[in-house]
């Protein structure tokens, strides 16, 4: 195998005409709804420039245990690619959403696990871990199997494990983040994280090799003092009732009566929430939410959305759900 | 020339490059096309603020790789009442042996190989695009070549740039 054989093979892989046309069509649709005058654009650009300088000033500020999340969110691709659109991020607000403890929870001959940061609120939690495989020199995509429990009960919600790219980490160490969403209360409970069957791809075969024969269990108290703010309360929504909408920098929770909630769920909840900020930035499902969950809660249905990067509730201009504008308190 | 003309020109110029990146990443053309649409929409929203074509191409590749990462990590709308898997399968039919071998590499190694052997980027340029160090790229290329040799029992060309 050589350069030419790979090049020749890849030359045959091309975008279809249908896809090309769809891209150009989307551009035409986009250009139809974005008619901004050159003067306004200049003014807005200057404003963005000033705000970016303010954000850089904040970044220089020494933060507490949530600094690891500041680094994580500020390197998010959406932020890196279009910093002019993300002028609302105020990482200082995360201080009240962090939890303790941080530190080394597991340390034996094979493995060390450090909890390097925890943030969250009533319904979501992000737990950042550094896992060091002491007997390895290098790691290549370990495959984690894990179970999450809250106060000893299997997590009623959804979770995700996100590998976090970091510089200056030892080659046998990996930073990962667990993201939890639940329609039930998370804060005040103890998270139990069970890791088992750790594997990684083998260099010599196509099969994964087992790293360790047994599992590990971590207990992490989740005690977040920061609470979500109620921005909508008891509002009619079509034929039913939207009991409340709660917002924090990390998530948005909506609570409907059961019948209305079920009708909404039947059509999927992914792209229904649209938040417009005072800087005209639209926060919608396209790259700005990392997860959404719906579940019955007594006689109500709750939807929880997590924001991909922290949002300052004070920056919200309006919220629309399923095309219906909500009246903010 | 209008912004729309510039955009159309960029689409025609880079569409296959970006599609190949996305395809190499997610390994099926349906997902790759979805990713490409998002990448070019970002280009349109970003506007033509580039120093030159190389700058624009590198920006597009970086955005495409980030979009691919987002795609793989995005778990979308899971409810207690129904689940939905948004990641389609791996297309392995009708691939050449060499593409098959490269696509079977872990993503960490796949992208440096593609950028080095197909896009002709130098190690320094790949490091900039992927946001990592030159040493890390060199190591990844070495390990990727080793894996490829084991897979197809042939020498993968090792060129210094």
From TrEMBL, chain A:
Give the transmembrane ranges.
Answer: 43-64
Q: What is the lineage of its organism?
A: Bacteria, Bacillati, Chloroflexota, Anaerolineae, Anaerolineales
Keyword tags? Membrane, Transmembrane, Transmembrane helix
The domain of life is Bacteria
Stated name of the protein: DUF4179 domain-containing protein
Automatic annotation (TrEMBL), chain B:
Cite the RNA polymerase sigma factor 70 region 4 type domain residue spans from the record: 99-148
Q: InterPro entries, alphabetically? A: RNA_pol_sigma-70-like (IPR039425), RNA_pol_sigma-70_dom (IPR014284), RNA_pol_sigma70_r2 (IPR007627), RNA_pol_sigma70_r4_t2 (IPR013249), RNA_pol_sigma_r2 (IPR013325), RNA_pol_sigma_r3/r4-like (IPR013324), WH-like_DNA-bd_sf (IPR036388)
Give the highest taxon in the source lineage: Bacteria
The answer to whether keyword Transcription regulation applies is yes
Q: Which residues form the RNA polymerase sigma-70 region domain?
A: 12-76
> What are the entry keywords?
Sigma factor, Transcription, Transcription regulation
One GO molecular function term?
Answer: sigma factor activity
Annotated GO biological processes are:
DNA-templated transcription initiation
For this protein, the record's NCBIfam families field holds:
sigma70-ECF
Q: Name the family the entry cites.
A: Belongs to the sigma-70 factor family. ECF subfamily.
Q: What is this protein called?
A: RNA polymerase sigma factor, sigma-70 family
Q: Which organism is it from?
A: Flexilinea flocculi
